[in-house]
Amino acid sequence: MAETVRLATARLTAMYGKFTAVKDVSITFQANTVNALIGPSGCGKSTFLRTLNRMHELSEEGWITGRVLLDGEDIYASRVSPMQLRRRIGMVFQKPTPFPTMSVYDNVAAGLRVNGRPGRSELDGVVEHSLKQAALWDEVKDRLRGSALALSGGQQQRLCIARTLAPRPEVILLDEPTASLDPGGTQRIEELVFALKREFTIVIVTHNLQQAARVSDTTSFFYMGTMVETGATRQLFTTPREARTEAYITGRFG
């Protein structure tokens, strides 16, 4: 298990178009942990998550001050390529986003082909390994050349996770990955998240407080663009330090 801190922010402030601004967030995510971000809709969780791999940078006008450190290096430094960074910090979105014109196999292999043409045997090995890590191999091993869109919603989301895993990232960002899934699909993703933390650091945005309690090691509560409180999940849900946190997790607002 890695001992270094994987990801940290230092007084990060971000403002982007239609997204809620976040202000003065300082937080550290330890290696091989699952870290939940909770809070009402529009409170800045997804804005913050997207700053962690520069996802906003190429899609929205705005500004960011502060630093985001990955193993001590500022990911916003001019020498850091956003495309290369996203191989180290992968992201999975709320709705499954398989590439519609690609097969199951080619979806998983897509990230490996960005900077070259790996050999077929290498690709075969990585695709199989990634699909096994995403708990999908047994369901699709005979359908690798079929359309990714022929899979169920839950399978498509696990396919997107496999695609994220293929380049061997250090950090995985999950933006409400079970919001569009049924209870069975949600359970599979939660089990997968728990297993993946052995090798990866995971940050997950969720509106489901029970999900945060089930899968995460730490939880951070966001409200109106600020991070109100962060701490061990058990502590935050049982003895929160801030009154606003207690009001939210007990259902008095949100």
Give a written overview of the molecule.
This protein has a domain at 5-95 and 170-249: 3-Layer(aba) Sandwich (Rossmann fold). Helices cover 33% and strands 26% of the residues. The protein contains 10 helices and 10 strands. It has a 6-stranded mixed beta sheet with strand order 6-7-8-3-9-10, sandwiched between helices. Helix 4 (120-133) packs across helix 6. It is globular and about 55 Å long.
What can be said about this structure in brief?
The chain is α/β, with parallel strands linked by helices and 254 residues long. It has helices at 45-51, 82-88, 104-109, 120-133, 137-140, 153-165, 183-196, 209-215, 233-238, 243-249; strands spanning 5-16, 19-30, 34-38, 62-70, 73-74, 89-92, 171-175, 201-205, 218-223, 226-232. The protein contains 10 helices and 10 strands.
- Order of strands in the sheet with most strands: 6-7-8-3-9-10
Gap from first CA to last CA: 37 Å
Main sheet makeup: 6 strands, mixed
Please estimate the helix content: 25-40%
Key structural traits:
single chain, 254 residues, alpha/beta, Rossmann fold, 6-stranded mixed β-sheet, 4-stranded antiparallel β-sheet, 10 helices, globular
